[in-house]
Amino acid sequence: MPPVTDDAWLAELLHDRGGLLADAGVAQEVAATLAARRVPPDPGGLVTRMLLEALDEVWERGWQPADLAHAARKDATAASVPLVVALIAEHARRSGAARRAPQAWLDQLQDLDALAHGDAEVVATWTRTGRRPPIESWRIVLLLAGLLRTAARLEVLVPPPSRWGAARPAPSGTAAQAEDDRALRRIRGLLAKAESSEFAEEAETLTAKAQELMTRYAVDAALLSPGRPAGAAVGTRRVHVAEPYVRAKMQLLAAVSEANDVRLVWYQGLGIANLVGGGADLDAVELLFTSLLLQVAQGLAGAEGAVVGRPASRAFRRAFLLGYAHRIGERLQAARQRATADVVAERGPDLRPVLRSRREAVEKAVAELFPKVRSGRSRSSVDAGGWYAGRSAAERADVAPRRTHLG
Predict the structure, then answer these.
(1) Order of strands, edge to edge, in the sheet holding 272-278?
(2) Using one digit for the tens of pLDDT, what is the confidence trace for 99-114?
């Protein structure tokens, strides 16, 4: 092995052209060698520069800040997340993201707390403050380098830094936006009550009520802007789904999306879902999905407690989530149909062409953004007990027809 003090050798290693560092065993062996030779984790700032260069490449391949934090947590190690966030923060500082980044990018930076600081010596500072042994620091750095260099190419949904202008356009605060914010606060309030309820029936009734409000909210948004091109309101959003049972959780997200005229395209193996739909619908879907994840966890805990004589198996838990998702989808669709019928009765049948136009705009956007996408359904068998327990957990609510108004 060449002397590791050679910057060119170390730079070539961190380029990881063969993708070897993505293998945990290889990363561990190389980390042990570097630590044994007493090479500091960031000699002369070289490692920081190389990782920031890798970030530039990742952004060009369609990744966004929240995607990278999710992948680091999933594929590298949880200990790498603070380093990832620090690198994103330094990249944001160098690229002027605070004044140039699109709003969606800026929102992710704020969520990661990656706007308040930056550090020219990211890796050295992270190593010093974390007080990790050199071998552990190197292991995390090498795994992260492997992750960045081998990251798959994703569809570009938000312009990367290379396409930013000198300044971000000023947001236009409108009365419609204020109405959107008000409606979302009401939806969020209903879901918060559902999450905190100790009674499954009450939680599910509140969830159905939130779906009805979401439907009226989306319908009113369509009717308030009849002259606006339908495609102008279509946007995208990424949602990250963590292990375990990613596929089952994706089924729940799909059920929520379908009930709100949002289309879902997901990357198998990454736990990343792309949502395409109206801006108001995207907000509502993300809110409801997050709430249902909390509710289904509570329902699963109760179902597991009811299993007598043996602990619930992994197959039971997966089937529970799938059964829950299936039944929730049916209930949300019923709530949507009630709310739509109410609006049609109030405003007349001219509503249907407006909604059809919105759906067509969403389908067109999906075809343009994901031309190679293919639909599919899981054909694997499921635990029958878990399936019916999940459906039961999603079905115990009284969801009698009701009218919910924004006013």
Answers:
(1) 234-240, 272-278, 263-267
(2) 999 999 999 999 999 9
C-alpha–C-alpha distance, residues 267 and 310, integer Å = 35
Cβ atoms within 10 Å, residue 317: 20
Q: Looking at the chain, how many residues does it have?
A: 407
DSSP-assigned letters across all residues of 22-41 = GSHHHHHHHHHHHHHTT--S
pLDDT digits (tens, 9 = 90+) for 188-239: 888 888 878 777 778 878 888 888 888 877 777 666 554 444 455 789 999 9
Q: If DSSP codes are grouped into helix, strand and coil, which group holds residue 262?
A: coil
Do residues 139 and 39 make contact, with C-beta atoms less than 8 angstroms apart?
Answer: no
Beta strands in 268-404 (DSSP E): 272-278
Q: Give this prediction's pTM.
A: 0.81
Within 10 Å of residue 165's Cβ, how many Cβ atoms? 10
User: 339 vs 99, 215, 325, CA distance in Å?
Assistant: 41, 6, 21
Domain boundaries in the chain? 7-156, 176-395
The predicted structure's pLDDT at residue 132: 87
Rg (CA), the chain: 24
| Long-range contacts of 133-136, Cβ-Cβ distance < 8 Å, separation of 24 or more | 133/35, 134/34, 134/35, 134/38, 134/39, 134/40, 134/41, 135/31, 135/32, 135/34, 135/35, 136/31, 136/79
For residues 288 and 285, give the distance between their C-alpha atoms in angstroms, rounded to a whole number: 5
User: How far, in Å, CA of 209 to CA of 259, rounded?
Assistant: 13
* Residue 363: CB atoms within 10 Å: 14
Helix ranges (H only) for 132-174 are 134-150
Cis peptide before 244 (omega within 30 of 0): yes
Question: Residues 278-318: pLDDT tens digits?
Answer: 888 898 898 889 888 888 888 888 887 776 556 678 888 88
CB atoms within 10 A of CB 372: 5
Find all residues with CB under 8 Å of 10, minimum gap 6, and list them.
4, 39, 43, 46, 47
- Around Cβ 222, how many Cβ atoms within 10 Å? 20
